[in-house]
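Progress narrative, work stream C.
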Amino acid sequence: MTNDSGQKWSPSEIDFSAVFAILWRRRRLVVLGTVIATILAAGMSLLIPRAYRSEAFYQLGSGGVSIPLFKNSSSMFTNPNRFLSYAHSMKWFSDKENRRMAQQFQEAQHIQKWVDPLYAFSKEDQKQLAAVGSNMNNAVLGLNLAYEGMSPQKAARMVSFFGRYVRDCLMYVTLFNYISDNVSEAHIVLQKNENNLSENRFRFEQQEKKKEDIRAILGKYPDAARVEIRQLVSLQDGGARFLSPVTQLVGIESAMADLRREAAELRRNREKLQLRVEFFDAGKAALSQANEKGELLFQKLQTAHRELFAKKDLKRDPVREVFNELSVDQQSFDRTFNLAYRFISGPTVPTRHVKPHRAIIVLVSFFLAGVFFVGLSLILAWWQSHKRAILADTK
């Protein structure tokens, strides 16, 4: 093999002087080609849409939320169908933006990439702190939210939407558990109360019958009323029958008085339980109407609370007591959802884009173009030196 000067090239070694000579003769091709390709790449980079990154930290209460609650909620807010449905119902975005979001968020990981939970104890912390134990002792303090949009305002608005969306999921799961647990418990306790009332009535009736029987004995044996009260009786079961009939009547009256007080307390509890059953039944109906929207469910629950007690006499102690208990629950939820769940920082409105990285594009283009045109120069030099031989062989 020979170069343009007629010198032979050995296949086992590279003659760098010959290579440099070739490149020097074709320096205009290498330099101009590299410069033109770099300029074209820089110009093309101007056509790539810019992306702006907004970030924020969303706090989940002063002590965070438990791991089970967060996991139950995260299975909801990583659901693309629910995510898109909530975005459409919020009416924060135009139809074009909603269609773009439908293309962008098709799988759970497309949402997860922008939502990063901050745990109270990381895995490394749990290894070092034996007192931390299992995840039940851990908590999610908040969420690092981010998004890259085509403008600073769109990116910030999307991060704000993420915060509200996660809050809505937590609201729904919290209220769902609250309603489901309490509606079952209220029905069960009410049934037990009814059973206790039935038993109380039966025992009261038995005491009345016993009182009538004792009075019949006194009528049959009038001298029994004058029997000395002080006498030795057995303390074993059934020993009271040896007491005088008058003494037994006093005991029966006392037992009946206790049963009356017990019945009054049971009826009072029944009234309270009936109110709770009525309220949580309304909450259960609201679950099917809220369409898995936490904020809407909370509004319906508050409406059910107002409507229920608007028809009740709040001057009555049992009614007032249940009203206060449920009001405390509503206030606690309101404080958690509207005050404890909030942005601590951000969403930021970026002033510089993060994509495309034009400096990197220009540098990479310059390097690749230089390599390409150097290789092209060597190939052209080889072709010129072997062109005659190759053409002769083809003839």
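Work stream C, second folded protein:
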Amino acid sequence: MPDPSLSFSPFLLLFAVDLLGKMSFSLDDASATRRFLEFLSIPSVSSQGPSGPYQRAVDFLAHQFGLMGLQTRTVTSVPGKPILIVTWPGTSPSLPSILLNSHYDVVPADAAHWSTKPFEPVMNEAGDIFARGTQDMKSVCMQYVEAIGRLKASGATFSRTIHLTFVPDEEVGGADGLGQFCTSPGFVELNVGVALDEGLASPTDAFTVFYGERVPWWVIFRATGPTGHGSRFVKNTAMEKLIRVVNKALAFRAEEEGKLHGGCDHGVAKKLGDVVTLNLTVLKGYVEGINGSYAFNVIPTEAHAGFDIRIPPSVSLKDFEALLHAWAREDEGITIEWGNSNRLKEHYVTSTDGSTNPWWKLFSSTLEGQGLKLEPEVFPAATDSRFIRKLGIPCFGFSPMHNTPILLHDNNEFINNSIFLEGIPIYEKLIASLANAPEK
């Protein structure tokens, strides 16, 4: 990773608020970079809950589109969590529209582990911009802004209406953001035909595009058993039962990891999104003593283990749930609970068969026509795309960041300015192509 200790040029807010209101939307690359840096300086951390930075992010974005003369409105499905909707009407507004979705919230950043201040973006001599959200996903937010600004300034018109949604809370599950909005009449009114959402950086020359996601399940195995003195051989304790389940789960984990690193399956190399990941993230079983100490000499009657499990579309969710219950049934006194009670029970995938999904054919041909190499994959984690795909709307996860290490949620998250700027004309061509798609 490039050394962030290289001599930095501090980020300067070159546009005062009162001056910005009097200016038109400037189109040069330097202005695009300055706007990106300003957006990165807004600490819109989702774990803090709805707070001033959420509204600041929305106000900043709305101002940019106001300079372009585009319609903006804010909807609030959950108090304090605004969703910005931007609309560029098409010449045939009855046609299904194009949706560009992105989230403006970011994950927390522990400044003690950063070489720079995570919400005071800086650019080093190599052009690397360090700040929380550079990859996930404020870069895409601003690439949308810049691409739309340039298309608008060019005098372009499109048959299909273009909507942009900037949403909160994606980093904490999205339930109060796009999840709520997708179930509302307001979303239905957008008449969406195809959507774009976030992808991932790619360390290679290729650009990854995601057509589906692994379903996240948070599973809790809870075991009960007899108690007694720690000096005795008490049989079938809660801990013994739980460890047997944990061992089965970890053996399964090893098998899946072997598929990922063990070569090829039918000649096709496995990607992370093609296998089940299972990680033990919660483990608890003890009797509490005085002042919060552990009662080492008392065998606990209850113990539980929690797992974060991600299941790809190639694995039946019904069959996988049956496997979990089979593990639990091998011992009496073991039950299963769900850490995410609203978990998905079905995979929602966008087809990448151009003969049956013309949106994919148009999407892929537009990018390949620019000389870009695409690698369709299953997203290894979860994004807001799942709410859109659940409605039967095609959705492609795409962030134009190639030759870039994957650093989402990482310390010293960065993107090179040249990569950020390179993504703007990519989106210009892609948006124009989708928005002028023929009626059929």
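The first helix runs from residue 17 to 20. No further action is required on this item.
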